[in-house]
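Are you able to produce any protein sequence you like plus the matching backbone structure tokens because I've never seen that pairing?
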Amino acid sequence: MRLVHWVSKSSDSKIGKIVASYSPLDTCPDSCVFKSGGCYAWGLFYLRILGKKIEDGRIKARSLKDALGSRDKNCKVVRHRVAGDVVGDVDGTIEECHLVEQEGLINIGYTHDWETEVTQPLKEWFRASCNTLEEVAKAKAMGWSTTLAVHGEGIPKSINIDGQKGVLCPARHDVPDKKDITCNDCTLCKVTDKTKDIIVMFEVHGTKATIKEATERSVDIDELR
């Protein structure tokens, strides 16, 4: 049984009302330093409960095909694994990526399992989630587009990272006098010839406890200035 649950219209204000999937904690690789603390998703009670319900069958996992059928008319993006990862489900995820493309939509996903051989085919659609500059270099050498978790004061919108362009995720909401920007508006994380070499930076976020732990496991922006 696949441990993947899809929703037609995410309630997450950051990503927007897009088709999105969720999986349990056990689908995350042990190589992810946020698995034991610092993950914005697992720091949220309702996502921890959702993950457990998917895992033990208390919720009937909805398929991508079903979710696509009732998606919002403005949906352009399909977000894989808002919580969870692809461990044990790479083949199924590849099939879903193809289905998304057949619908004329954009695949966006991230994985901390990018070093394993079985996960390599996903680099066509997913970005490697990195927590250090060394990981970024290794992932890029393996052909992955990358993201980097960062923390600090005054994180710039863009910055040079070892000769390559780092761009801060522009998604925002609830900012006075500013238009909300969601994943559906942005699409920066889509892997294309234009974006594949951009290092997408994500400022650590979540609850206070989550941010504290994530700060200890991410890159200080001052190291990149």
Summary: The CA atoms of residues 115 and 142 lie 8 Å apart. The chain has a mean pLDDT of 95.
